[in-house]
Amino acid sequence: MGEMTLKERYGAVLAWFEAENPNPVSELRYETPFQLLVAVILSAQCTDKRVNMVTPELFRACPDAEALAAHTPMQIFQFIRSISYPNSKAQHLVAMSRQIIERHNGRLPSTVRELMQLPGVGRKTANVIASVIFHQPRMAVDTHVFRVAARIGLTVDARTVLAAERQLVANIPVHLIARAHHWLILHGRYLCLAKKPQCRDCGLAAYCLYHTDPKPPDESLP
Predict the structure, then answer these.
(1) Pick the catalytic residue: 124, 195, 196, 213?
(2) Which letter, b or e, does each residue of 87-122 get, where b requires 16 or more Cβ atoms within 10 Å of its Cβ?
(3) Per-residue pLDDT tens for 30-61?
(4) Burial (Cβ within 10 Å: 0-12, 13-18, ≥19) of residue 59
(5) Which domains does the chain have, with CATH numbers?
(6) Active-site residue 213, yes or no?
(7) Contact between residue 184 and residue 145 where contact means Cβ atoms under 8 Å apart
(8) Is 142 an active-site residue?
(9) pTM for this model (two decimals)
(10) Catalytic residue among 7, 64, 89, 142
């Protein structure tokens, strides 16, 4: 394929994703907005598969903020001990739950700014909640999104997560941003692998700079 403009690349990539997976969803298992927040916090530097192994028991004991806030970090640690960084995450979950009760009457705040004020909630997590729960056009950039966007050529010289987020949001139609977040994550998880991308099986190869450029741009998460 000849040289593509950035607009053409976005158009082709998004059209392919929409045809292949029109309704992507998170692979984290949850029943309520609060449970999604807990699961996303636990998923930091950990696989969704591992998170889904521990959350059923945790959610049976702590289905909501009130129940989780009544536990100590050590008690929560026992549920999540097989998760990465269980000590700090247990502390964050308890503090987060108590802050939701004390400052937000037990309900999740809806803005990224307010969400980021909760213990254990960074920009990526806040964007996930704002997008999935509150249907806002937010792009959460994790290691998969950062890598895949750089490889395909959707981001150009994005040196930071925030730079990648801003480029993606600026070029993806508002109504597709929430789905595009899942598309990029799933593509990175199952096809565009970090060490061995499955280019032969990828329907995006014709539009992807990584496939055609022997020296693709830096894709490592800063």
Answers:
(1) 124
(2) eebbbbbbebbbbbbeeeeeebbeebeebeebbbbe
(3) 999 999 999 999 999 999 999 999 999 999 99
(4) buried
(5) 6-24+139-212 (1.10.1670.10), 33-132 (1.10.340.30)
(6) no
(7) yes
(8) yes
(9) 0.90
(10) 142
